[in-house]
């Protein structure tokens, strides 16, 4: 008998810290699987954010550092510039990356740092209990937007599109984690992001649309329907830039 | 070795390189700009990396990254920048991540004055950030001393695995003086153990894991104890102070950095007139030389002047903690980039000597 589905070697043998139905675990598993695939478990540094994404520290069996809130791209810059031979993964949520860390991600992308950024966007501050994020949809309820987000609280920020205004990035794609087909596409995108860094091609940015059943107040299945009906309308999937072959 | 005539900021930048610094990130702020300017060209020459951060927030986090991977790293800034870096400093003191932090002080508070001053004493010694921690902090008063202390600060940072502060002031940064540079040190990247690793990944302790949040309360409290023990060791071993003309002193000036330079001139002027004045000059402001003040004989010493380029006086509480009310303490300061002359300080001394310290 052949074992065709197993826990990636790069994953710690313990439960994840995520809520039931949360797709962070899927994102983590894709990443760990790719670390196995490229054989880089001993050479990887996972730079993690503040927020639910920080729970990745219980998942990846690699070197890792939980950076300060929003500063993962800066911390990763310091690591990569000092140790270019390391594979440095940046993992951030939408509160971390698009709110408090907006300057750091923009300038890291603008410098074209040779990094792979995986951006998990679930349109909410999860860890702190469901406050509005820069990516919260118009009308979507949050604990700091009790009747739904209004224009007074700004509009959803589209990070792929914003970063696509810069010259330096090599690869920008938005994927989703709601279905097996989309998960496979996300894996393909992150694989490309890994490969770009390993081949010294420069900055790759992969956004993963995700859910938050706990703070959206939905069952996991309902949260997937919400992603398909609402989130993906606001945040279209697709490749925004791919210069992987040109550089 | 021959002496070079160098500007303070450039001299300390070269001293850092010679002390093994191979990573620098920083954001422009006066009066320290020559440091990043010099290192932007110099670091690549020695195989190091320079990044102009998009802010002080980013810069200190870049330094954290470089330190995490074992590179001798540094940043420099001035008061407002240090405030922005304070979350990073708190993290670095805790994790701990060694690095050298240079504060070329200017006038405060707020955006303040761009000229040199000494207004970050409390920030440096009491609360460089949230969460309760200490930084070994050197306060040079000549360019030669600044060079020597920056060089030493790298060794101390790595000895204690803790961020180390060099509290210069804008005057020291901007002066030019003859200086002898220390030899070039060849330092390799050095990955040191992190306390947090076994707590974040108990199944694989060889992984290098860093966080400043440990979800088990007892582990976190143990970690606080480890940090407290480190501060106690630094306090015991790293105190530096200069006692100048103190043997027969009847009056004492306490001053550090540029103020101490002026104080020495004042003391010579007063001694020419037969008035016996001495100087206690903290070279480390944390740990503070309380003992130098504690041992003063109140039957002999009639008065103390705490002298700073700061209004209000900031160091006076530490001076009094050593003196414990036994000897009268006066304060004198100028601020906003105005530096007192030795004659001005002499006048202040005479005022107290003739009126309050009889």
Helical content of chain B, roughly? Answer: 40-55%
Shape, per Cα inertia axes of chain B: globular
Largest beta sheet: strand ordering of chain A = 2-1-3-4-6-5-7
CATH topology of the largest domain in chain B: Rossmann fold
Structural class of chain B: alpha/beta
By CATH, the topology of chain A is Rossmann fold
Outline type of chain A: globular
Give the assembly state of these chains. heterodimer
* CATH architecture identity of chain A: 3-Layer(aba) Sandwich
CATH class membership of the largest domain in chain B = Alpha Beta
Number of domains of chain A: 1
List the helices and strands and how they pair.
The complex is a heterodimer of chains A (247) and B (358).
Chain A: H1 24-38, E1 44-48, E2 63-66, H2 72-82, E3 87-93, H3 94-100, H4 102-110, E4 116-121, H5 159-163, E5 171-176, H6 180-198, E6 204-209, H7 213-216, H8 220-234, E7 238-242
Parallel strand pairs in A: 1-2, 1-3, 3-4, 4-6, 5-6
Antiparallel strand pairs in A: 5-7
Helix pairs in contact in A: 1-6, 3-4
Chain B: E1 4-7, H1 8-18, E2 23-26, H2 34-45, E3 49-52, H3 56-68, E4 73-77, H4 79-94, E5 99-107, E6 113-116, H5 121-125, E7 136-138, H6 143-160, E8 163-169, H7 170-174, E9 176-179, H8 197-200, E10 209-210, H9 217-237, E11 241-244, E12 251-254, H10 257-272, E13 277-282, E14 284-286, H11 290-294, E15 303-308, H12 316-323, E16 329-333, H13 342-355
Parallel strand pairs in B: 2-3, 2-4, 4-5, 5-8, 7-8, 12-13, 12-15, 15-16
Antiparallel strand pairs in B: 1-9, 5-6, 7-14, 11-13
């Amino acid at each position: 008998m052949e074992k065709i589905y197993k826990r990636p070697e790069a994953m710690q043998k313990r439960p994840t810290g995520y809520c039931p139905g949360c797709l962070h675990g899927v994102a983590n598993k894709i990443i760990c699987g790719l670390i196995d695939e490229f054989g880089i478990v001993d050479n990887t540094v996972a730079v993690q954010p503040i927020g639910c994404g920080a729970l990745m520290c219980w998942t990846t069996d690699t070197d890792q550092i939980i950076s300060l809130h929003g500063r993962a791209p800066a911390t990763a810059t310091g690591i990569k510039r000092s140790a270019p031979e390391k594979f440095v993964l940046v993992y951030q949520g939408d509160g971390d990356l698009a709110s408090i860390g907006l300057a750091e991600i923009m300038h890291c992308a603008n410098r074209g740092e040779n990094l792979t950024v995986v951006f998990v966007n679930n349109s909410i501050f999860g860890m702190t209990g469901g406050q509005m994020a820069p990516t919260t949809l118009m009308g979507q309820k949050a604990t700091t937007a009790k009747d739904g987000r209004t224009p007074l609280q700004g509009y959803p920020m589209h990070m792929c599109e914003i970063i696509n205004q810069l010259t330096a990035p090599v690869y920008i794609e938005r994927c989703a984690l709601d279905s097996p087909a989309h998960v496979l596409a996300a894996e393909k995108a992150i694989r490309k992001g890994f490969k770009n860094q390993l081949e010294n091609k420069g900055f790759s940015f992969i956004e993963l649309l995700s859910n938050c059943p706990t703070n959206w107040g939905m069952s996991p299945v309902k949260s997937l329907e919400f992603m398909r009906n609402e989130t993906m309308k606001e945040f279209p999937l697709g490749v925004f830039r791919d210069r992987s072959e040109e550089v | 070795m021959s002496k070079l005539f160098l500007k303070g900021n450039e001299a300390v930048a070269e001293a850092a390189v010679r002390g093994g610094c191979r990573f620098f990130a920083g954001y422009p702020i006066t009066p320290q700009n020559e440091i990043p300017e010099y290192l932007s060209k110099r670091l690549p020459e020695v195989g190091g990396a320079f990044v102009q951060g998009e802010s002080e927030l980013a810069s200190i986090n870049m330094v954290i990254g470089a330190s995490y991977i074992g590179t001798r790293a540094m940043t420099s800034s001035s008061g407002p920048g240090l405030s922005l870096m304070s979350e990073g400093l708190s993290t670095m003191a805790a994790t701990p991540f060694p690095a050298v932090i240079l504060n070329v002080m200017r006038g405060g508070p707020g955006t303040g004055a761009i000229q040199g001053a000494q207004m970050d004493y409390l920030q440096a010694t009491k609360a460089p950030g949230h969460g309760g921690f200490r930084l070994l902090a050197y306060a040079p008063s000549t360019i030669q001393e600044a060079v020597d202390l920056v060089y030493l600060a790298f060794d101390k940072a790595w000895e204690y695995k803790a961020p180390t502060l060099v509290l210069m002031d804008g005057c020291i940064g901007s002066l030019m003086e003859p200086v002898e540079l220390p030899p070039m040190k060849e330092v390799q990247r050095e990955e040191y153990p992190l306390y947090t690793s076994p707590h974040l990944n108990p199944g694989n302790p060889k992984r290098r894991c860093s966080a400043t949040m440990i979800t088990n309360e007892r582990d976190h409290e143990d970690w606080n104890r480890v940090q407290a023990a480190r501060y106690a060791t630094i306090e015991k071993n790293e105190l530096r102070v200069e006692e100048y003309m103190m043997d027969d002193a009847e009056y004492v000036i306490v001053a550090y950095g540029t103020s101490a330079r002026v104080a020495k001139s004042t003391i010579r002027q007063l001694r020419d007139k037969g008035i016996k004045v001495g100087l206690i000059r903290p070279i480390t402001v944390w740990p503070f030389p309380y003992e130098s003040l504690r041992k003063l004989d109140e039957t002999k010493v009639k008065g103390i002047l705490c002298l700073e380029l700061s209004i209000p006086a900031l160091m006076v509480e530490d001076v009094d903690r050593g003196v414990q009310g036994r000897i009268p303490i006066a304060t004198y300061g100028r601020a906003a980039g105005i530096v007192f002359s030795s004659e001005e300080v002499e006048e202040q001394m005479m005022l107290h000597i003739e009126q309050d310290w009889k």
